Amino acid sequence: QLVESGGGSVQAGGSLSVSCTDSRRTYSTYCMAWLRQAPGKEREGVAAIDSRGGTAYADSATGRFTISQDNAKNTLYLQMNSLKPEDTAMYYCAADYWVVYGRRLVVLEYNYWGQGTQVTVS
User: Fold this and answer.
1) How far apart are CA 97 and CA 84, in angstroms?
2) How confident is the model at residue 23 (pLDDT cuts 50, 70, 90)?
3) 16, 33, 50, 116 from 107: Cα distances, Å
């Protein structure tokens, strides 16, 4: 029920926005996150937002990426600016009801996943 969209290709220094729609859940009870996996690397947390709107960012994303959500549209967003080639990865949307506050960027905290959307920076 998590469906990502908006990935694509961009030159270094450019911007992209990805979104994730969940038609099933009640936003007020969820923590949602963006995670990514580059070829040959482990999946890693990028940004997360909890039901109160509190956010968490990986060091690599701080200052360049912004996570947000639109409760009325059941949609999660990730605005990515100043993109670098090392941001190239499959980006996944994930969600769960029970995520420990200090572990919002930990892959294992999430049981609901989208199929991913590719982001390529050249």
Assistant:
1) 32
2) confident
3) 23, 9, 15, 14
